[in-house]
């Protein structure tokens, strides 16, 4: 196996790992979205339980964990991309496309996580003020 094949193999493993990470965060954000909908419905009927649920969701800190993963992704992915490649730049169009696609998926999930954190804060404030 030549050097480029080794690099391609490592990059392929890296891409696969981050695809799994993104899928897991996607599921977690979907669950959070569901709980936030429930919190919006239950804040008047069960304010204390709603506050507890919202606090738990906030403590999970999906945004913080996702941000850390994205930073790690960018630091490693950047080593493969020209013009600053620390190794031979990726010349495989498919892999370059996958790198770009994962970057966009991270950005989309980060945007959703930020929106969810804003919703959590709004629901917490509303629930606390009115109960």
Description:
- By secondary structure, this protein is mostly helical.
- It is 83% helix and 0% strand.
- It contains 4 helices and no strands.
- It has helices at residues 3-42, 47-60, 62-78, 93-130.
- The longest helix is centred in the first third of the chain and has 40 residues, at 3-42.
- It is rod-shaped.
State the helix count: 4
CATH class: Mainly Alpha
Contiguous uncertain segments of 5+ residues:
none
- N-to-C order of helices and strands: HHHH
Computed CA radius of gyration, to the nearest angstrom: 20 Å
Helices and strands: which structural class? mainly alpha
Number of strands: 0
Q: Helix content range of the residues, please?
A: over 70%
What is the mean pLDDT?
88
Roughly what fraction of the amino acids lie in strands? Answer: under 5%
Number of spatially distinct domains: 1
Biggest beta sheet summary:
none
**How would the global form be characterised?**
rod-shaped
What is the name of the CATH architecture? Up-down Bundle
Terminal residue distance? 66 Å
CATH fold type? Methane Monooxygenase Hydroxylase, Chain G, domain 1
